[in-house]
Amino acid sequence: MLTIWGRLNSHNVKKVAWLAVELGLEFERIDTGGQFGMDAAYLAKNPNALIPTIEDGEVTLWESNAILRYLAARHGGERWWPSNPAQRATADRWMDWQFAYADAQRDAFLHNVRKPAAERRPDLIAASIDACAKHLAVMERYLDKKPWLSGDAFGIGDIPMGVYVNTWFALPIERPSFPVVEAWFERIRTRPGFAEQVAIPLS
Ligand SMILES: N[C@@H](CCC(=O)N[C@@H](CS)C(=O)NCC(=O)O)C(=O)O
């Protein structure tokens, strides 16, 4: 059985738990990181002291997007891990791009959710929203031509941004409108596993 280490209020853990449901994998998730801490046995599996980490039979792996690629390739077959390099790269590109988006959204998230009220910086939140909007404008144009970030069908390329855009819509902020991204997100919300593994209250 697949084991996932990581608390579920982590963006990077959500990605992996969501894909496990999409693939119909039986899995156990062990709360780790944040208030749950990391013991020596965990740090031996992941010397970065970060979550998530998985164990799948003989394989131990960290780095959330590498885990998505691995699970898709090992358990998903052609549907999730296309042999056509161009098709695979379409999804891959958005998975790498997500890390830049995560940097853009970091302050809007931290200063609305994680930091105590006295430490919140409206100027940093405003700059973060602007940076997110620049990224989302790029997504808006792409999704105007294709239904999914993975191309013609939902795939692992949609998962990282699905998790971060869920946070974008859950933050108590005024958002510029991106109707095409909103329509994509409405489709994302109906995906298996999304409601219970991703769309949980922000904390
Ligand atoms: N690039 C890594 C980043 C992992 C990461 O930054 N994880 C955060 C949570 S999202 C973490 O471990 N924070 C420390 C903690 O939770 O104790 C990945 O995608 O897996």
Cα Rg: 17 Å
In total, the number of domains comes to 2
Fraction in beta strands:
5-15%
Give the integer mean of the pLDDT values: 98
Shape: globular
Helical content (DSSP H or I, runs of 4+): 55-70%
Q: Tell me the span between the first and last alpha carbons.
A: 28 Å
Any idea of the CATH class of the largest domain?
Mainly Alpha
The CATH architecture assignment of the largest domain turns out to be Up-down Bundle
CATH topology of the largest domain: Glutathione S-transferase Yfyf (Class Pi), Chain A, domain 2
Count of alpha and pi helical runs: 8
Number of strands: 4
Largest sheet: 4 strands, mixed
Q: Helices and strands, in N-to-C order?
A: EHEHEEHHHHHH
Question: What is the structural class?
Answer: alpha+beta
User: Segments where pLDDT lies below 50 for 5+ residues?
Assistant: none
What is the topology, as strand order, of the major beta sheet?
Answer: 2-1-3-4
The molecules bound to the chains, other than polymers, are: glutathione
